[in-house]
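Researcher: I'm preparing a figure for a lab meeting and need a structural model of a single chain. I don't have an experimental structure, so a prediction will have to do for now. The sequence is pasted below. Please return the structure as C-alpha cells so I can convert it later.
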Amino acid sequence: MSELDAISDKILQVLARDGRISNLDLAAKVGLSPSACLRRVQDLERREVITGYRAVVDPAKTGIGFIAYVTVGLSQHTKSAQDAFERLMRAAPQVRECHNITGTVEYLLRVEVADLPAYKHFHTEYLGAFPHLNTLTTMVVMASPKDMRG
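Model: Understood. Here is the structure written out cell by cell.
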C-alpha cells in the first residue's frame, strides 16, 4: 500500500482528532475489523505517515497567557546565518514552532510565553541580540477559533 486510500485517510482524520481512541472504536468508525484496522495503523506508523502522538495542552493552564506569531527577516541570506538562527530557535523553549518560509522574510515563529513582559524580554534580549536580524514583526493571537495542531 504505497498510496493512501479513503480508509487510510479516514483513519488519519480520526486519529488527528483523538489519538487515544481505542483500536476497537477506531475500527468501528472507519468500517474495518479490529485486526485489519490495527494492521493499517501499524503500516501507517511503519511508513512514517504517522510520526507520533501528542497531548493537546491548554496553554492557559500551563502558565501561557501570551501567544504570538513572529516573522523574522535576516540581514544575511547565507547558509551559516540561517543555521545559526535555526540553532538559536531550537534552543529557545518559548519558540513552539519555527518555519523557514518563502516571501519577504525568512522565518515564521510561534512564540508562547507567560505574559507581555515575558514576550518583551524574549523579543529584546533573545531575538534582538541575534547579529543577523533585519526585521521582526509580531502578530499577537487574540483568539483561536480553529486550531488543528496536535
